[in-house]
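User: Sequence for Cytochrome ubiquinol oxidase subunit I below. Tokens please.
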Amino acid sequence: MGVLAAGAATPADLMAARTQMGISLGWHIILACFGVGMPALTVFAQWRGIRTGDKAYERIAHRWAKAMGVLFAVGAVSGTILSFEMGLLWPGLMATYGQVLGLPFALEGFAFFIEAIFLGIYLYAWDRLPPRLHLLTGLPVCVAGVASAFFVVSANAWMNQPRGFDLDNGRVTGVRPWAAMFNPATPWQTIHMILAAFMVTGFGIAAVYAAGMLRGRRDRYHRIGLLLPFTVAAVVTPFQIFVGDVLARFLADRQPPKLAAIEGLNETGSHVPLSVGGLYLDGEMRYAIRIPNALSILVGYRPSTVVQGLDKVPVADRPPVNPVHLSFQLMVAIGFALLLLGIWLAIVWWRRRDLPRTRWFLWLTVLSGPAAVLALETGWITTEVGRQPWVVWQHQRTADAVNPAPGLWVGLIVVLAVYVVLTVTTVYVLNRLRSRRVTAPQEGWAEEYAP
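Assistant: Structure tokens for Cytochrome ubiquinol oxidase subunit I:
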């Protein structure tokens, strides 16, 4: 292993820091997705209820609003943990590049407070304001949720495509915060994340109501509760696949080692096949289904397109191939499976304006919720692990950014315990909310609508 430089973190502490950050991000990003997608779905359901007079929409909106409040509160806790971890675990990053990254994080703070303020008004004033005026108080929540995602992901995009600063003997000078935030990776990476948020939210909510329908609850409330979020997620899915395709070509130009790891491509060349499945062993992709010329065509629209392989990257600068490759493969497989599920519903609905009558559709819809979350997590693994060993692409290594203090594994254990408690508490509260009797304001009805 060699002699560690003075003040450098041990490999064990580096792995502990990376694991802790990965767990925190992986946990928080699920709640962040619901923070982006759920306000829009809730406000839309309420608007439909007001416009059509259909009380099922109002009941759905009222239930979703309560769940949204719970998820926002828990997300605020996990987001606070992440903000501390940025400074505690990665002081090398923040000390060197904090002034470059400061703008998107500051703007995200403003968006968070706007979201919190108006979410409080939206929840508290449900039966205290006229319906249309109350509906308007939900709009800032929708905008702020999307804005928060944009600002945070733009900071991550900068880590993949650092811009907006100069280096003078290792010192950061000439900081241009707006250029840093609107770096080349920002447009497509932020769109990809926001679309993913609507997929996770839509399929996640639909899964709950599909489970209720499997238990025999086939009333209008459950049908709308499934159809509304499922339709949004299904409509978003083909656009998400398109954006993912654009991002792959972006990587070919801007981050070729990541694309090479995604495909397990060892040798640079043209007429490169697309590998489906397989494992990267002993410097080559094995057990994969190969589609001739497909990767070259996807990257440059012609078989003669040259695609860079890992042979052009120093061994010390190569990302770990198998975690990146397998994560990407799983993400793509789930994306196309969800696309087919949406097409199934679209065909049946076009023919007879109804859900598919087979229970298989409901079972697959139940599975679509966790599948969308799994696609989200594997997408982030592809993005983050594919950038390694750099925390700031080609500028700062992850090992140079980590806190050199010993014992970082202790923090990992503490954070694991915190997230276990948060998970159990959140599931318990949401389950209690699911089984509670919902009373609509100004109507006086009270019925069981537990999905």
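The radius of gyration is 23 Å.
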